[in-house]
Amino acid sequence: MTTTPKLIRKAELKTNCPECYTTDGLQVEFYQPYVNSRWYKRFLAELSSKMHCTKCGTEIFPVSWTPDIERVYDYHRKSTNMRSSKRHWKPLALILMLVGIALIAAVAIFGVNYLS
């Protein structure tokens, strides 16, 4: 089972970068882990983020955030719509489930007819 982060939202922040003090370079990206196994695929109910400045090229860690950055970050995090975490079965899994159900039904019908 492999888990890969998928980008679900990218937002531009109009606050000052704590490194270069520019007002138009901060970006925050929100990621949701995506599980892709042999039988199904689905998104997990977790949310991770990464903030960086496009002007100076540095990643901004939460330790150096100002109250303005925290406020704007919280707004964008709350307004991010996470994708559904239900399983999406792959065709091979669906076929095997149907074959299994048919096999159980055949054994049940054969058992009822054989015992009668």
Question: What labels would you give this structure?
Answer:
116 residues; 2 domains; six-stranded antiparallel sheet; 32% helix
SSE topology sketch:
Elements: E1 2-13, E2 26-36, E3 40-43, E4 48-53, E5 59-60, H1 67-78, E6 88-89, H2 91-115
Antiparallel strand pairs: 1-2, 2-3, 2-4, 3-6, 4-5
> With helices defined by DSSP (H or I, 4 residues minimum), what is the helix count?
2
Strand content: 25-35%
Q: How many domains?
A: 2
SSE pattern: EEEEEHEH
Low-confidence stretches: none
Compute the average pLDDT: 88
Tell me the radius of gyration. Answer: 24 Å
Helix content: 25-40%
Describe the protein:
The protein is rod-shaped and about 85 Å long. Strands 1, 2, 3, 4, 5 and 6 form a 6-stranded antiparallel sheet that branches. The mean pLDDT is 88. It folds into 2 domains: 2-85, no CATH class; 90-116. It has helices spanning 67-78, 91-115; strands at residues 2-13, 26-36, 40-43, 48-53, 59-60, 88-89. The chain is α+β, with helices and mostly antiparallel strands and 116 residues long. It is built from 2 helices and 6 strands, in the order E-E-E-E-E-H-E-H.
Summarize the structure.
By secondary structure, the protein is an alpha+beta fold.
